[in-house]
Amino acid sequence: MTGWEQYRDVIEDREFPTVRDWRERTGGKVIGCFPVYAPVELPYALGMLPVGIFGGGNRIELAHADSRFQSFICSIVKSTLELGFIGKLDLFDGLLFHSICDPARNLASVMQRNFAERPAIYVHLPQNMTSPSVVPWFASELRRVGEALGAVAGRPIRDVDMARAIGAYEVVRGLLRHLYALRTEAPERISTAELYTLARLVTLMDPAESAPILRDAIERSQQRQERPKDRIRVVLVGSFCEQPPLELIESLESAGCYLVDDDFLQGWRWARRAVAGGGDPYEALARAYVEDSVHLSTKHDLRRPRAQALIESVKSSRADAVIFLGAKFCEPGLFDYALYRRALEEHGIPHLFLEFEEKMWLYDRVRGEVETFVESMLFTEATA
Amino acid sequence: MSVAPAVRYQGTIHELQKELMTRYYGELTDIAEGRSDAKNAHLLIAGNPVEILRAFDILPVYPEVNALQLAVRKVSLPLIQKAEEFGYATDNCAYVKADIGLFHAGGVAPFGTVPKADLLLCNYVGCNVYLNWFEHLAELTGSPAVNIDIPFIRTQGGEPTADDIRYVVAQLEELIALLERITGKRLDREKLRRTVDLSAQAGELWAKIKDLTKQRPAPYDAYFDSVTMMAPLYCLRGTEECVSFFQTAYAEMSAKVARGEGPLAQERFRIVIEGPPPWPFLRAFRDLFTRWGAVAVASTYSTVGGLWEFGFRHDPAKPLESIARHMLAENLCNRTMLQRYDQIQRYARDWNADALVIHSVKSCRLFSAGQGDMREHFVHDLDLPTLLIESDLEDPRYFSHAQLRNRIDAFFEALEQRRVTAAADAADAAGVAS
User: What CA–CA distance (Å, rounded) separates A106 from B126?
Assistant: First the structure.
């Protein structure tokens, strides 16, 4: 075991125990970051703790927010607003939103109006990846956001602190890359439920404190002796923003899948390799996002279509199939599915479409669908 | 209430618009069917650099306009369903689905044939679905594609930063270089200034036309008749034809003001409408307001492609900077929800509106996400009677006539009652005072 069970409750607890603990110990301020990608280095460079806000999960009831956002809007938007209405965001000194989709953008405005005392800082993520101007512009945007966060911190942001913050997050991103590679290589040694829990924990802790936990998990996984089960290897996509319940991830695995790649929590492990050090830290971060980030569903890089990236992921992880696990009403994900389906059919890769809601309790139906899918594949394999 | 008699909504501008749009789609069809070798670029309505295309004699094609035309002609549903067969979800924007369905139908529509794009020019102005849409078109058609990244308005003052302006101008220069390669000719900068000037003239006339609805009665409906004028504004902006259309429209509307005429026999309620219309049922939807004598005096939808009524004009002396400003700040789509609240509040005050009607459409989350909060703000903070109704702009499956009629009738009944009560209170107060 990687010692992950103790964190199961922590990652779902909307009292944010690790964050409260950090705040009590350090007296520092806290910045909530909406998925998918947030420049967490900026608040960290100012001595503040960036924390992942992933909605209300399946532990809160919507009592106010569903009168503000319609029934066809995804759950994470509503449940994040609900967290504000029921005081669960009082712990936060500011919130970072960004241009990942239309409802998320409007949520930033709605939060600003309803909770004027808590700054809602908005980051525009660039979408013209081929312009020579994009890196300098995005660096200037990161500087602007750094200044806005500096107003919350009560002090200006310094380049030296930025470089240090990039280094701190580079450590945890590197460790997560290591764990992901371990799982791809030998998924019997670390389950996705474990890996997910650890990755989610990273979004709730100081990187200096989560890094030892990740190192320990790597060590334990490497030492684990487990015989591979008769499961299919699956790449999972579609859950890049709103997150499925942990129990659903476990259900997919126990239904016969080794998940060998996924897009959970991508914003906290967005860099494909280490962010280049030296020089202007803002420019380094901007360049890494534009040139070297994973295939985020909210980043539209016309040089590298995401369907192509998915096929590459299937090949490089030696996966047998793809499961698209999309959040209900998530428009970017649903659009991606149409292109994924086309590419997967062209390449003869079996795939299964599933939808989830963060507030779901029953997994039998999903489990049944996955079991049937897995059985059909194992049967085909056996008779081939 | 007394039910208003059936109204014929068509006037000179409607006839002229039809003529212009028929000619425009004829030009597209000529390209698609090989009778013209003119180049075309597909782009989006929200703040766009069409002036640059016009300066290259490149014809703009608007998938949004094509999609709404399909809905108006009641042929959108089979195309939407065709896209759904290819994996698009019921929750995806139906404009996109209708357009994807149209591609699979060879681009042949009742109003013309849509040519394959020489360039897919995605002006990413607010709406994230734009990015998906053009990404999918690029994948399906193999046409070259480029994204013009327009930073969203996100500063306290509601203005773009100096870096934003420089960034957009730089991308426009890159676009010009790309168009020079596509067309094989250099940009004529003087011609660009001329097209920008024509946009400025159209913007000036459009702003004056919009100002006329401050009159009682408003000479036209600023929602249902504005959409008639929006077609030439977008499809023909930067041309002499466009300016000429708006000169005619301004003359017609001014004459109506002089005669004290409105679109209805009697203007009983002045409303602001927020959100796009239900194109498949435009006439039926309008009738639901007409029966109450309700006339829109302002609408947010008429500003998706540009906000001219508050003073912005393209500037031929600074063509690229003013195009950049238009794309960044002078259109509804790239502005925040809170800026939209301010815009509506300004309409309600300066155009003397009695109420706000929010038409929430499932397809367009840029518009709709959070409109419940908008209602909350206008009802509770500003005491403006507000109605929130739902359907869709393209997919006829989401339009429930009976349900909408019930909601709209109940709202205007309450509004009428509120007016009667207010009059009685005023009379009582006057009685007490005397």
Answer: 11
Q: Tell whether B372 is covered by a domain.
A: yes
Q: Which residues pair with A96 in a beta bridge?
A: A33, A121
- Which among A105, A289, A336, A351 is the top mutation candidate for probing chain B, defined by the most B β-carbons within 10 Å of its own β-carbon? A105
Number of domains in chain B: 1
What pLDDT does residue A252 have?
97
Q: In angstroms, rounded to a whole number, what is the distance separating the alpha carbons of residues B194 and A254?
A: 67
Least confident of A226-240, A323-337, B8-22, B322-336: B8-22
C-alpha span between A247 and B356 (Å, rounded):
45
The closest alpha carbon to A272, from A177, A367, A206, A355, belongs to A177
Domain that holds residue B198: 28-430
How large is the ipTM? 0.96
Residues of B in contact with A124 (CB under 8 A): 151-152, 154
Give, for A25, the enclosing helix (H) or strand (E): helix A17-26
Q: Which residues of A touch B136 (CB under 8 A)?
A: 335, 338-339
Instruction: Tell me whether residue B17 is in a domain.
Output: no
B359 at interface of A, judged by CB pairs closer than 8 A: no
Say if A328 falls within a structural domain. Answer: no
**Residue A222 pLDDT class (50, 70, 90 cuts):** very high
Cα–Cα distance, A326 to A243 (Å, whole number): 9
Q: Is residue B179 assigned to a domain?
A: yes
Residue B4 has pLDDT above 60, yes or no: no
Comparing A149-153, A222-226, A342-346, B199-203, which segment has the lowest mean pLDDT?
A222-226
Q: Which residue of A has its CA nearest to B135?
A: A302
CA distance B123 to chain A (A): 10
Structure tokens that stand for A3 in this block = 């010692």
- Residue B129 is nearest to which of A126, A131, A331, comparing CB atoms? A331
* Stretch 221-280 of chain B: residues touching chain A, C-beta under 8 Å: none
* Cβ–Cβ gap B336/A108 under 8 Å: yes
Q: Does the residue A120 lie in any domain?
A: yes
Query: Is A18 within a domain?
Result: yes
Question: DSSP label at B377?
Answer: I
